[in-house]
Amino acid sequence: MNKKIFSGLLGIALLTGCAKDPVNVAPTNQYSLGSYPASVDDLNSVLAASYANLRDPNLFGFNLLPKALANATHATNCVYAGDPFWNEMAATNLTVANSYVDGAWQMFYSGVKDCNATLSGADFFSAKYAKPTDIPSVNLIRGQAYFLRAFYYFNLECYFGEDNITSPTATDTMGVPLVTALPTSLAGAQLGRSSIKAVWAQIESDLNQAATLLKGQVWTGNDVDRVTEWSAKALLGKSYLFTKDYNDAKTTLLDVINNSGRSLMPYTGYMNSFLGVASAKGANNTESLFVLNIDGQSFGDYGVYGGTPNSTSIMGLIWCPWSLGADGTESGASPMGYGNEVTHDKNITRFGFNLGYYNLVSNPNFNSSMPASYNNPVKVMDPTFKANSLAARTNNTVDPRLWVNCLQPWVDSVMPDGKTWYPVSKPSYYLNGPTDYGWSIRKYAPVFNNINNLGPADVSDIYFIRLADVYLLYAEACMNSSDNADALTYLNMVKRRAYNYPVNAASPVDYQSLTSQTAAIGDPVLGNNPLYYERWAELFNEGQWWFDICRWHLGASEAAYYGTAINATSGPLTFNSNAYAWPIPLNELNSNPAIQHQQNPGY
Asked: What torsion do the CA atoms of 283, 288, 291, 294 make, to the nearest 10 degrees?
């Protein structure tokens, strides 16, 4: 992927149209400002920056999911309290200087700029160089740029727009600034906020254009993870739903379900897909509609911070599992990365795990003639507790998505040295808490190597849109248009896959109504709400639950459920309701006069 400096230079090139001979312009190793892009390959290289931007450390290369969203939704609990902005996320009490908010704003807009550069480049190439035979390829490039621009704006609006603020007034209608062309001056780049209605209209327009331009295109080989007509329609249906246009949402999402050729993966493939197993990646994944490919090669560095920029993400540095010490003790346990975060304990019971906490007992099989080690520990998990834990998996008495998302100490295993399976351990900072679960994160975490040893970083593809999400969005649209039967059908299809039952046939785990008991027994938020529970459980720690918290106004009830967070240093969790819309960053306020008096309420 091209480095960010390239797209900046290209933007200038497309704006100026400089006609000087490039030989007479220094430096001579840059593209001619009046002759680029001059081929379809050139234009594809411009488009590459629109995709590559997703890998930026401020977005899905590092910060956004593990530091911002996992803390704000309490999917994880973070032991590191040395970053005040990280702590703000856990306390959902944000300031305008928050670095994660600022980084997301900057890089989502960088993505918009890259897409605008691609569309301008397509106009430039079509007008000056394109042959008739080039037009189909140019249209495919345009289609991808329209989709990606819509995706960047979808995120900007969901994080920063006033869509979800509580008790809105007639003036609470601001979305985010709309930039749909490369500005030709500084003043042209300093825009105020557009209306919510205008932003969603732009998103929907871009997605409709993308679906039209990409219609029928099937990518193969190295291009298999490029966006398609069905990526566009899936995000379009989601956009309709988020704006409460339920009839258009139903029509569009059902089109994806029936005609995209996508299908829910079997449970084993679904479980493997978040570990980067080859059989569940790329063309082998029948469920993905928009995915960021992570190739998983061994680069010998820390992903986006290493010698091959934008090569892979490094979220696993934060989300890494903990392995039992080489001496067979939990006190000697070590993380396979930084080890800042583990699964928040309240999620274990929310998935239906009701066995309580384990004790360590003397290992009946300890060989005293051999040194204590990871495979010859002096103490082990109580064998009865372990047997009950394994039975819960076999008998599906706990939601199996717990095992997709989390690693249980002493039951699951990881490879800290890249070749030997060690039992997972409770992290060392939980050892003085006998009533702590201390489960490691599994989804998107590296289980096959220790990142501290400079092996591969993350290996799992990052899923932005997948068919299970579409099923749940469709179910929600049905619920809101008096079609409860279809809503229940699609909720149950997602649940059946999770429990390894055939998707299209009735199963013993089916919900019988839209208020049936879920696995989260006694949970005032999710306990008798299958739609809420299924979106939480199915999309756990994928960055989607924050949007649901905000649009359903669940912040206060979620804070009350989780109760505490280690790095939220102000006592019991509360939810500052202004967090339903993130603040416009201080850097933007200071540099853009047009937005200085358009801050979100409460900041």
From this structure: -50
% of the chain at pLDDT higher than 70? 92
Identify the bridge partners of residue 440 per DSSP, sorted by sequence position: 407
- Name the 3-class secondary structure at 122: helix
Nearest-5° Cα angle at 532, 520 to 483:
125
Provide the 8-state DSSP code for 69.
I
The mean pLDDT value of the chain amounts to 91
Checking if the pLDDT of 297 tops 80, the result is no
Using only C-alpha atoms, what is the Rg of the chain? 25
Residue 455 confidence (pLDDT)? 64
Question: Residue 299 burial by CB count (10 A; 0-12/13-18/19+): exposed, middle or buried?
Answer: middle
What is the pLDDT averaged over residues 215-226?
94
Omega before 37 within 30 of 0, i.e. cis: yes
DSSP element (H, E) containing 465: strand 462-466
Residue 378 · residue 363 · CB < 8 Å: yes
- Helix (H, G, I), strand (E, B), or coil: what is residue 292? strand
Report which of 76, 16, 69, 11 is spatially closest to residue 340, judged by C-alpha positions: 76
Give, as one character, the DSSP assignment of residue 242.
H
Which of 327, 323, 536 shows the shortest CA–CA distance to 446? 323
**Cβ contact 149:585 at 8 Å:** no
pLDDT band at residue 456 under the 50/70/90 scheme? low
Contact present, 403 and 285 (Cβ < 8 Å): no
Backbone φ and ψ for 420, nearest 5 degrees, come out as: -125, 135
Measured CA to CA, the distance from residue 601 to residue 586 in angstroms comes to: 14
| Residue 255 one-letter amino acid | D
Which of the following CATH numbers is that of domain 36-215+579-603: 1.25.40.390, 3.90.190.20, 3.40.47.10, 1.10.510.10? 1.25.40.390
Residue 262 has pLDDT above 80, yes or no: yes
DSSP 8-class letter at 67: I
3 state SS of 214 = coil
Do residues 303 and 312 make contact, with C-beta atoms less than 8 angstroms apart?
Answer: yes
CB 399 within 8 A of CB 351: yes
Between CA 536 and CA 46 the distance in angstroms is 37
CA within 13 Å, CB half, 382: 9
The DSSP code sequence of 351-395 is TT--S----EEE-TT--TTS--BTTB-SEEE-HHHHHHHHHHHHH
Task: Report whether the peptide linkage leading into residue 27 is cis, meaning its omega lies within 30 degrees of zero.
Answer: yes
The dihedrals phi and psi of 48, each to the nearest 5 degrees, come to: -55, -35
Domain ranges of the chain: 36-215+579-603, 316-460
- Cα 484 from chain centre: 29
Strand partners, 174: 195
Residue labelled with tokens 């230079």: 9
**């899936």: which residue's tokens?**
234
